[in-house]
Design a protein that fits this description.
Layout (H helix, E strand, L loop, with lengths): L1 H19 L1 H12 L6 H13 L5 H34 L8
Helix pairs in contact: 1-2, 1-3, 2-3, 2-4, 3-4
Amino acid sequence: MITVIFSQLAALIIKIISGSGYLGITLLMALESACIPIPSEVIMPFAGYLASLGRFSFLLVIFLGAFGNLIGSIVAYWAGFYGGRPFLERNGKYVLLRK
């Protein structure tokens, strides 16, 4: 069961990156860094593979992956600093968190 879930999630990540390119890498890394359970262990190796094929720039993949992580961390920090526990109790259901 868990293998099926992981393989479907990996296929979705690969489809997003293949379809949206650099923007997909940045958004997926931002979501992963903002505590959404998206494995960066699938995002960055696949982006690196595409860079090795010449489809992406290796340096741009690194920069946008790190930039996405920064954006996600800022969002998570903002949510914790300004919203705290009441914010999570109100909006946590959208990211699979519950009381």
